[in-house]
């Protein structure tokens, strides 16, 4: 796990600016750093290293291939790199290696077989940049689901460049681009309606104009002279294709046989992801997903697995007592930390720099705190993320299926007129009828799911500008997989999971230099999950059936039979405390909002007053506060 950065055609102060970029992301790699500059001075790579595999200088980056033709910076882990190493030797492509790290094997494979063929062979999480010094081409790529971040785009060139010339830049952290001399990319106001609907900015967009997130499963190539016209992109792996293929080739065995196969695949994934030259453990929130991962880790290990959880003093939000019971049953070496409201408040000022762009999933706070505690004991932690999206865990999936089952009985030509009638009647003043009115106009299950996030009209009035940008929640067609719950699961795997969940885990963990790994995102696990029939996943409100079948082989069902809480916090209550309320009202000051000119002061004031004076909570309150905190700390 590391941080990577690059500059192309930046000018005479390229090295100085690369040092700025590396300094900005020192938390991603505190163990070592390096810089490479091409002979013609046009291309520069920078790297910050968190040593996980082969901490010797043999694993240092930027790394040159044995031939000297290719140079690479790489963030992530290739779990099956030994297979790739053996293939290189068997094919006569490489006779010996300088060290034992995955980076060297990866680079030699890319040079020998090409980027696309290499990526088809490997399992891992990664963001990679390779420069071919002979072809004068720079190639960027990102892992299949989007565990590791990669921002890229054009920025104002520095000294020595022609007037008005643009330079190409990339980095693991968009804040690295912000620190470049002369950076003048403006706020991308076109993404704000999406942000204020969901609380995050999905790929390919970023908060800055001209800067994009490379989408998962994508290869980007830019050739000399490195202008916008010199960029090409292609997809090497698509969750959309995997989903469609899996649902057309459903698993035909029994549910018990499906659990057998899932257990086999998960254990193989976990076995590969437990390999590290540094101490390793796992998050344990007491939910189905993390409990399954920890149970299988302990089954794979001859020693006690380190497990970590945080508890809360707030009644109704504390799962630590259950996590402790599970850990005791499994026999792990368990560590817990109880956090207070003050602990959470202390994290809030850190969030803008931690995420470098507006991000407002409030579970970012406890995720940071559990990562911080975990890092005091280990350098790598496995996580149970992706269980809900792969195995139909969210109750919303059942709700969408139920609503669509009723709605599809209404003739399609009548739906939109009926929706308009409700929305323009006095009934729409009440939330319940406004929501029903919007859902009545839906033409597909996907639209029901999307509209469930967009029922409050104030969401689209917070920002002053309202360009209509397409994004993943609008791009999945009807019957993409042929089954309602799977269609909305696919929507989440294309946007919510990579752009919220994985961003939250990566940024909070890397803020304390902790590597996180997600065994359920193993390629074989993901592809198998999409072959499972819906009745192996859900029974009414009860989801993740086959995953629970695996877990109950290790943990008694009675121990897990309770509502899920996860790493959640009572942010609504805490914002009314004197300290956080004062912080919030300073950020939402009307004069301040008018001076900044991005948000509508009247709409923001109404949302805040509804909360303070009428106890009407909208999640957009936290979204607005995180945006304003980012404006104050990162943009000014």
Key phrases:
Rossmann fold; 4 domains; 6-stranded antiparallel sheet; Glutamine Phosphoribosylpyrophosphate, subunit 1, domain 1; globular; 27 helices; alpha+beta; 636 residues
Explain the overall architecture.
- The chain has four domains: about 1-235, Aminohydrolase, N-terminal nucleophile (Ntn) domain (Glutamine Phosphoribosylpyrophosphate, subunit 1, domain 1, 4-Layer Sandwich); about 240-340 and about 355-390 and about 505-560, Rossmann fold, CATH 3.40.50; about 395-485, no CATH class; about 570-635, no CATH class.
- Helix 8 packs across helix 9 (about 290-300), helix 9 runs parallel beside helix 10 and helix 16 (about 410-425) runs antiparallel to helix 17.
- It is about 45% helix and about 15% strand.
- It has about 625 residues and is of the alpha+beta class.
- The model has no long low-confidence stretch (mean pLDDT about 95).
- The chain is globular, with a radius of gyration of 25 Å.
- The chain starts with a strand and ends with a helix.
- Helix 9 (about 290-300) links the parallel strand 13 (about 280-285) and strand 14.
Break the fold down into its secondary structure elements and pairings.
Elements: E1 2-8, H1 14-24, E2 32-37, E3 43-49, E4 63-64, E5 70-78, H2 81-90, H3 102-113, H4 115-121, E6 124-132, E7 137-142, E8 151-156, E9 166-171, H5 174-178, H6 192-198, E10 211-213, E11 218-223, E12 231-235, H7 239-248, H8 255-273, E13 280-283, H9 288-300, E14 306-312, H10 320-330, E15 333-339, H11 341-347, H12 351-355, H13 364-375, E16 380-382, H14 387-390, H15 395-407, H16 412-423, H17 431-440, H18 445-451, H19 484-510, E17 515-517, H20 523-529, H21 545-551, H22 557-560, H23 571-574, H24 578-587, H25 590-596, H26 601-614, H27 620-635
Parallel strand pairs: 13-14, 13-16, 14-15, 16-17
Antiparallel strand pairs: 1-3, 1-9, 2-3, 4-5, 5-6, 6-7, 7-11, 8-9, 8-10, 11-12
Helix pairs in contact: 2-3, 3-4, 8-9, 8-20, 8-21, 9-10, 9-21, 13-19, 15-18, 15-19, 16-17
């Amino acid at each position: 796990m590391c941080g990577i950065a690059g500059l192309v055609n930046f000018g005479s102060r390229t090295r100085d600016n690369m040092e700025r970029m590396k300094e900005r992301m020192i938390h991603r790699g505190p163990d070592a750093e390096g810089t490479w500059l091409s002979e013609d001075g046009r291309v520069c790579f920078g790297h910050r290293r968190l040593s996980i595999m082969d901490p010797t200088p043999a694993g240092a980056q930027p790394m040159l291939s044995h031939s000297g033709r290719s140079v690479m910076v790489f963030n992530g882990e290739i779990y099956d790199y030994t297979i790739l190493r053996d293939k290189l030797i068997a094919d006569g492509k490489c006779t010996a290696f300088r060290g034992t790290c995955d980076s060297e094997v990866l680079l030699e494979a890319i040079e020998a077989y090409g980027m696309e063929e290499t990526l088809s062979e490997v399992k891992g999480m990664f963001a990679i940049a390779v420069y071919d010094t002979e072809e004068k081409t720079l190639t960027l790529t990102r892992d299949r689901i989007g565990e590791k971040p990669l921002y890229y785009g054009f920025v104002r060139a520095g000294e020595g460049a022609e007037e008005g010339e643009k330079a190409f830049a990339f980095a693991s952290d968009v804040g690295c681009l912000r620190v470049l001399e002369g950076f003048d990319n403006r706020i991308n106001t076109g993404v704000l309606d999406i942000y204020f609907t969901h609380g995050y900015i999905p790929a390919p967009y970023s908060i800055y104009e001209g800067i994009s997130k490379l989408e998962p499963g994508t290869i980007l190539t830019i050739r000399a002279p490195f202008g916008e016209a010199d960029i090409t992109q292609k997809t090497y792996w698509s969750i959309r294709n995997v989903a469609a293929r899996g649902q057309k080739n459903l698993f035909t065995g029994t549910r018990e046989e499906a659990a057998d196969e899932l257990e086999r695949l998960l254990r193989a994934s976990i076995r590969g992801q437990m390999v590290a030259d540094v101490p390793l453990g796992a998050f344990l929130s007491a939910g189905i997903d993390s409990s399954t991962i920890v149970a299988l880790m302990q089954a794979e290990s001859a020693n006690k697995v380190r497990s970590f959880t945080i508890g809360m003093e707030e009644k109704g939000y504390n799962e630590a007592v259950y996590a402790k019971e599970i850990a005791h049953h499994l026999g792990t070496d368990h560590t817990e930390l109880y956090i207070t409201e003050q602990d959470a408040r202390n994290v809030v000022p850190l969030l803008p720099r931690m995420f470098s762009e507006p991000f407002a999933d409030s579970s970012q706070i406890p995720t940071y705190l559990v990562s911080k505690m975990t890092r005091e004991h280990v350098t790598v932690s496995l996580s149970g993320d992706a269980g809900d999206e792969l195995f139909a865990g969210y109750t919303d999936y059942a709700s969408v299926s139920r609503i669509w089952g009723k709605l599809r009985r209404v003739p399609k030509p009548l739906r939109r007129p009926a929706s308009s009638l409700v929305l323009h009647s006095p009934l729409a003043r009440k939330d319940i009828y406004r929501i029903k009115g919007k859902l009545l106009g839906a033409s597909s299950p996907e639209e029901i799911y999307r509209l469930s996030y967009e029922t409050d009209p104030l969401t689209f009035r917070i920002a002053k500008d309202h360009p209509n940008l397409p994004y993943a929640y609008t791009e999945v067609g009807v019957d993409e997989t042929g089954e309602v719950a799977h269609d909305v699961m696919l929507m989440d795997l294309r946007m919510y999971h990579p752009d919220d969940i994985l961003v939250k885990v990566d940024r909070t963990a890397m803020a304390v230099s902790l590597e996180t790994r997600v065994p359920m995102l193993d390629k074989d696990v993901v592809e198998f999950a999409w072959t499972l029939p819906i009745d192996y996943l859900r029974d009414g409100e009860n989801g993740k059936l086959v995953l629970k079948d695996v877990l109950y082989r290790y943990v008694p069902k009675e121990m897990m039979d309770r509502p899920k809480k996860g790493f959640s916090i009572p942010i609504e209550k805490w914002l009314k405390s004197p300290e956080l309320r004062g912080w919030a009202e300073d950020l939402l000051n009307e004069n301040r909002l008018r001076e900044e000119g991005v948000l509508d002061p009247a709409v923001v004031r109404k949302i805040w007053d509804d909360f303070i004076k009428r106890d009407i909570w909208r999640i957009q309150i936290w979204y607005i506060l995180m945006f304003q905190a980012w404006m104050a700390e990162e943009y000014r």
